[in-house]
Design brief:
Chain lengths: 185, 127
């Protein structure tokens, strides 16, 4: 693929932002700053912008706290990916990070549970976890997935890609519906 | 005892807790990676303030965004306010949300339910 083709691909896939590397505190601040400006310029109504921003904050905190190193013990290889794009109906927030194979089952259960709940049940579950869970050392408190499902109003899509005996690559895709333009008659 | 004043940043909210009036303002956004660092002094201040036995406390919470790790600490703050109530202080929580931000309104209701404190949930127009 030559450079122009690469450029066309980025344009045609409506990629608003694409990042791979270590998610540091500075990177999070920078990405949020860029996305606030970008979302302002596509003039989405306040609530869609807020939903995207909320999901993005949670996604990046997940990457920040839970990314495993590609090379065991080498924190410089805690590489992850983040991409934001859209189509006619949705904005997509896509993340990918390494995860230990023995952590997959619990994460899968958690997301499946969140995806199985109705809007009202999700709210009840949120209140329950908010009230009962102690704050974990990573501060995540298990609310992240519930919150993303609530804020986006959509099911969470995920996939685990095989890497080696100890690691897999965890893909999470959250979508937020665009505002439907009002039809003039 | 001193008032607690913390300036807001792009990651952390503005805090203005006034000893004399009992007005506790929490405004802006709360999305830091390390919420423990930010909220510990806030919770400690409230622990000390209980000894002042104020007649009335009004917590004005007006947050644009907060992450889920902050949400635990917001509940911790409300739980501290419950201690004031038990000690005889009149406590009111004013929860503000931008009028089209249904999620923030619902979150206010969630906190009202979980904390058991009297809430006023107040919408304001987008700037």
């Amino acid at each position: 693929m030559n450079t122009y083709e690469k450029f066309r691909k980025l344009m045609d896939n409506h990629i608003m932002l694409s990042f791979k590397g270590e998610i540091t505190s500075d990177i999070i601040t920078m990405v949020l700053q860029i996305m606030e400006t970008r979302l302002d310029s596509v003039s989405e109504k306040g609530n869609v912008k807020k939903k995207i921003f909320n999901v993005l904050v949670e996604c990046m905190q997940n990457l920040y706290h839970h990314s495993e190193a590609e090379e065991p013990g080498n924190v410089d290889t805690r590489r992850a990916m983040l991409e934001l794009f859209y189509d006619n109906d949705f904005y997509y927030i896509l993340t990918g990070n390494y995860i230990k194979n023995d952590a997959i089952a619990a994460l899968r259960d958690r997301i499946d549970r969140v995806n199985s709940l109705s809007k009202e049940d999700l709210r009840r579950y949120y209140r329950e976890i908010l009230d009962n869970n102690i704050i974990s050392d990573k501060g995540g408190a298990d609310l992240g997935m519930i919150d993303m499902a609530r804020k986006s109003g959509q099911k969470l899509f995920y996939q685990f890609h095989d890497v080696n005996d100890s690691l897999s690559f965890f893909e999470l895709r959250v979508k937020v519906a665009k505002n439907k333009p009002k039809l003039d008659k | 005892m001193d008032n607690l004043i913390i300036e807001g940043t792009r990651q952390t909210p503005e805090i203005n807790f006034d000893v004399e009036s009992g007005i506790l303002k929490l405004e802006g956004r709360s999305i830091p990676e390390n919420t423990f660092e930010f909220f510990t002094p806030v919770l400690n201040w409230l622990d000390a303030y209980v000894n002042s036995s104020p007649d009335k406390i009004v917590a004005k919470i007006n947050l644009e965004y907060f992450n889920t790790s902050s949400s635990k600490y917001i509940l911790e703050i409300l739980k501290k306010l419950k201690v004031f109530k038990v000690e005889g202080t009149e406590v009111l929580v004013e929860w503000y949300y931008e009028e089209d931000d249904e999620e923030m309104m619902e979150t206010g209701e969630d906190y009202e339910d979980v904390s058991g404190l009297p809430f006023e949930i107040i919408s304001f127009e987008e700037e």
